[in-house]
Write a structure and sequence with these properties.
With about 300 residues, this protein is an alpha+beta fold. The protein is built from seven helices and 17 strands. Strands 7-6-8-16-17 form a five-stranded antiparallel sheet. The model has no long low-confidence stretch (mean pLDDT about 95).
């Protein structure tokens, strides 16, 4: 049987339960922040600070992705974007002693696209019903695809759910959002995130826009004193993705630009650009984290 990195160590079970519980609490609390006139930067800071108040750290920068942006946008320092009539995806990660709870929801501030929001929500609900030890990845993807298409929308086929391991938000297996016919089966002890995306567009994404989320790749030495100094902060984030904003607030934009440029060239960090639907279609998202056991547990319920 294939060995996957997302098989939970039983000794860590309580950590996974705690991470999921905090993620759930922060998700529900955060919904009160999402209203016309709110500044996107204030929403992000409030959510990340709430995670810290609860004794955890962000598992990744809170993603606040608007309209055709499916994922990987978080506000920059001095961001001026205001909420008004957009479709907003709120993707929250909580890291508690290495265990990560990953959960997301969508709010339609325009009031015109509730059916799109429901499509991803129902796809997640229906996928949850088929989860069990032995179910194939293709079966999960088929459920997501059929649900979203029944609402008249397209699943985003080059975005997927994923395994989660200690200090690692994305591991194999990839959990498809359409019927790939993949015969790989879920195994007991897996930690996975089911993450349907529904779109009014073609159902594919591409990278676009300024990169504002990064991830550490290597500890290898770098010659620049500025880059070394910034790298110390990056390592303190706990080996999970981080926001450029977190560094800009301490060092300033120019210094961080120079340091990140050098760290990317040296192979220390990698950037995750915003993911945009290729035909500018609107996108909704829903997500929960699960423990696959004899009885499946939704950790972020």
């Amino acid at each position: 049987m294939q060995q996957f990195p997302n098989i939970m160590n039983p000794e860590d079970k309580e950590k996974w339960i705690k991470a999921g519980k905090i993620a759930s609490e922060v998700r529900e609390w955060s919904k009160s922040l999402i209203k016309p006139g709110a500044k996107l930067l204030d929403v992000a800071n409030a959510i990340e600070n709430k995670i810290r108040e609860k004794g955890a750290t962000p598992g990744f920068p809170v993603n606040l992705s608007l309209n055709e942006i499916a994922a990987h946008y978080t506000p920059v320092k001095d961001d001026t974007i205001l909420l008004k009539d957009q479709i907003l995806k709120v993707d929250i990660g909580v890291c508690f002693e290495g265990a990560i709870g990953d959960t997301a929801y969508t709010i339609d501030l325009s009031g015109k696209h509730q059916k799109l929001v429901e499509a991803s929500q129902q796809a997640l609900a229906n996928a949850t019903k088929v989860l069990r030890v032995g179910v194939t990845l293709g079966e999960i993807g088929k459920t997501v695809e059929e649900t979203i298409m029944s609402y008249g929308f397209q699943p985003i086929r080059n975005l997927s759910g994923h395994g989660i391991a200690m200090y690692s938000i994305h591991t194999s297996p990839s959990i498809p959002n359409y019927d790939t016919k993949e015969k790989t089966a879920l195994q007991k002890g897996m930690i996975i995130a089911i993450e349907p995306f529904a779109s009014t567009g073609e159902g594919r994404i591409k990278e676009g826009g300024e990169t504002v989320i990064f991830e550490e790749l290597s500890h290898k030495a770098v010659r620049s004193p500025i880059a070394r100094q910034v790298m110390q902060d990056i390592e303190a984030f706990g080996h999970v993705p981080f926001a450029r904003r977190w560094l800009d607030e301490k060092y300033g934009v120019n210094k961080v630009s120079l340091a990140l440029s050098q760290l990317k060239l040296n192979g220390n960090v990698h950037g995750h650009a915003p993911l945009v639907e290729i035909s500018k279609g609107l996108v909704s998202q829903a997500e929960h984290t699960f423990l696959i056991d004899d009885e499946v547990v939704c950790l972020t319920k």
